[in-house]
């Protein structure tokens, strides 16, 4: 009986956990070396390090920050492309678990600047059709690889990459990597945009 029980236990011991990283909790941003770009925002015309084309440069050059003070835009949240770049309050990452199996269905990212809360689907669902609605938060799916959560986001509305009007089109795809090192969570964000980025 002992060897039979051991055979039943061994597969569980040898199988890695479904979520090898847990990013849930409350996280406070560290705004230090990139403070000028995140709090007051970069100067108009400062597109340093961004691989933008002529169309993006023209759009950014004609952008005016006062557009956000218009009554119909005052409650407009930051788009997903800029979601994590704002001056931000603390961010909460919550787990959404299946009520019966207690398996992870999704993470929710809540509390960032503008309260454009996002859902990161972790249950393997596909992205919707290219004709599906585009929203401020887009449609995000995630997969865990070691100590990283890799998120792919599509279906985002037209938005900005920086606070000086550098645009991102609705055709953009964003890949984010949340990398946890103990009590530190690093985010790498990559935007692929066939319209405005080269």
Percentage of residues assigned to helices: 10-25%
- Class by SSE composition: alpha+beta
Largest sheet: 8 strands, mixed
The SSE string, one letter per element, is: HEHHEEEEEEEEE
What is the β-strand count? 10
Strand content: 25-35%
Tell me the Rg in angstroms. 20 Å
Globular, elongated, flat, extended or rod-shaped: what is the shape? Answer: globular
Mean pLDDT over all positions: 84
The oligomerization state is single chain
Indicate the low-confidence ranges by residue numbers.
1-19
Q: Number of helical segments?
A: 3
Strand order, largest beta sheet: 1-2-3-4-5-6-9-10
Distance between the terminal alpha carbons, to the nearest Å? 64 Å
The total number of structural domains is 1
Question: What does this protein structure show overall?
Answer:
It is built from three helices and ten strands; from the N terminus they run αβααβββββββββ. The chain is of the alpha+beta class. The chain has one domain (25-192). The strands form two sheets. It has an eight-stranded mixed beta sheet with strand order 1-2-3-4-5-6-9-10, with no helix packed on it.
């Amino acid at each position: 009986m002992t060897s039979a029980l051991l055979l039943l236990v061994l597969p569980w011991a040898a199988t890695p956990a479904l979520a090898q990283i847990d990013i849930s909790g409350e996280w406070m941003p560290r705004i230090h070396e990139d403070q000028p770009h995140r709090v007051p925002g970069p100067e108009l015309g400062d597109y340093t390090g961004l691989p933008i084309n002529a169309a993006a440069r023209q759009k950014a050059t004609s952008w005016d920050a006062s557009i956000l003070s218009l009554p119909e835009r005052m409650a407009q949240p930051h788009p997903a492309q800029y979601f994590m770049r704002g001056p931000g309050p603390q961010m909460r990452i919550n787990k959404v678990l299946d009520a019966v199996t207690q398996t992870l269905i999704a993470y929710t990212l809540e509390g960032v600047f503008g309260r454009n809360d996002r859902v990161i689907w972790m249950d393997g669902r596909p992205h919707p059709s290219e004709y599906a609605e585009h929203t401020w938060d887009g449609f995000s799916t995630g997969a865990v690889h070691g100590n990283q959560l890799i998120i792919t986001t599509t279906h985002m509305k037209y938005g900005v990459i920086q606070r000086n009007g550098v645009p991102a089109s609705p055709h953009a795809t964003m890949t984010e990597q949340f990398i946890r090192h103990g009590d530190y969570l690093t985010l790498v964000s990559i935007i692929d945009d066939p319209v405005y980025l080269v």
